[in-house]
Amino acid sequence: MVGDDVETDVRAAQLLGMKGILVKTGKYRPELLGGEGLQPDAVLDSVRQLPAWLDGVQARAPGARSRAAS
């Protein structure tokens, strides 16, 4: 889940077993990070950074190839 709200986007996703990625747009507030043990799986400046982040996740996965190599 990618969203700008640390509670309703990130926390909800993580409670359901998904990755919670926070983008620093819209409702993002830095003071809300780290509250109540909440830690996003990633914090991105923009959704434009998502493809590069996903490529990095894939590169770290055993036996996985990046989308660029596909």
Tags for this model:
70 residues, Rossmann fold, 3 strands, globular
What secondary-structure arrangement, pairings included, does this model have?
Blueprint: E1 2-3, H1 6-15, E2 21-23, E3 42-44, H2 50-60
Parallel strand pairs: 1-2, 2-3
Task: Outline the structure in words.
By secondary structure, the protein is an alpha/beta fold. It has a single domain (2-69), classed as Rossmann fold. It has two helices and three strands. It has helices spanning 6-15, 50-60; strands at 2-3, 21-23, 42-44. Strands 1-2-3 form a three-stranded parallel β-sheet, with helices on one face. α1 links the parallel β1 (2-3) and β2. The two termini are 24 Å apart.
Strand order, biggest sheet?
Answer: 1-2-3
Helix content: 25-40%
- Class derived from helix and strand content: alpha/beta
Q: From N to C, what is the helix and strand string?
A: EHEEH
Q: Structurally, how many domains make up the residues?
A: 1
Query: In CATH, what is the homologous superfamily?
Result: HAD superfamily/HAD-like
**Unreliable sequence segments:** none
User: Can you summarize the main beta sheet?
Assistant: 3 strands, parallel
Name of the level-1 CATH class: Alpha Beta
Q: Tell me, briefly, the overall form.
A: globular
Secondary-structure arrangement, i.e. CATH architecture: 3-Layer(aba) Sandwich
Rg of Cα set: 13 Å
| Rounded average pLDDT | 84
Kindly identify the CATH topology: Rossmann fold
Strand content: 5-15%
